[in-house]
Amino acid sequence: MSHARIVTLRRPRLRFGEKIYLGAIVKGFLLTLRHALRTMLGKSAGARSLNSSGMGVTMQFPEQRWDDRMPEYYRGAPALVTDEQGRERCVSCQLCEFICPPKAIHIVPEEIPAEDRWSKVEKRPKEFEIDMIRCIYCGMCEEVCPEQAIYLRKDYLITGLTRADMVHDKRRLYEIGGVRTGLVNKWNELK
Asked: Which of 19, 60, 110, 115 is least crowded, fewest Cβ atoms below 10 Å from its Cβ?
């Protein structure tokens, strides 16, 4: 049986300046001063690519915008779209409402009258609201939509003066969504 050997380690003795952290404080101050001077005398790293004013990398909003440098993968505000003939693509399946993590989407479906040419579709949204304050722009509503009726736009300027202004109704969602081209299963007469 082997015996464990005990090793005693001694901490190094600190000098007076090290005990009061004087060296670390001075080093941090000089580093901060160097960054401040570099920012004041010229452009900081990254400022040129942001078209900054020269005082750091801060974009001067609203004069300067991200619009021309928006990444391809950016997910902005959700909106409803129509087809080329101005018809609603939404069939009120409510999948987007059910999958929405913060429960920001509210849909009230209605039946399409029997005398309507497209009565085979059965439903359309009577009310469709998205609370932009609750929306987390995750894109799950866009992914789950079988009719490609809801899209996330590259819009980051969503403002309102009241909470009611931030609840986009069906009219507003179609207004900001616009028109999408392509086959829509809902309007396919062969289905």
From this structure: 115
CA dist., res. 27 & res. 34, Å (int)? 11
Bridge partners (DSSP) of residue 105 are 130
Q: What is the pTM of this model?
A: 0.64
pLDDT recorded at residue 189: 58
Q: What pLDDT score does 54 carry? A: 52
C-alpha distances in angstroms, 113 versus 94, 118, 187?
Answer: 19, 9, 16
Domain ranges across the chain: 16-63, 70-187
CATH of domain 70-187: 3.30.70.3270
Q: How far apart are CA 85 and CA 181, in angstroms?
A: 9
Which of 141, 118, 144, 143 is CA-nearest to residue 131?
Answer: 141
- pLDDT score for 83: 83
User: What is the signed CA dihedral for 76, 104, 151, 114, rounded to 10 degrees?
Assistant: -160
Instruction: Give a three-class secondary structure readout of 20-63.
Output: CCHHHHHHHHHHHHHHHHHHHHCCCCCCCCCCCCECECCCCCCC
Residues with Cβ < 8 Å from 61, sequence gap 6 or more?
A: none
Average pLDDT along the chain, 191 residues, taken 10 residues at a time: 82 83 89 84 58 58 76 88 85 94 95 78 88 93 91 86 94 90 61 46
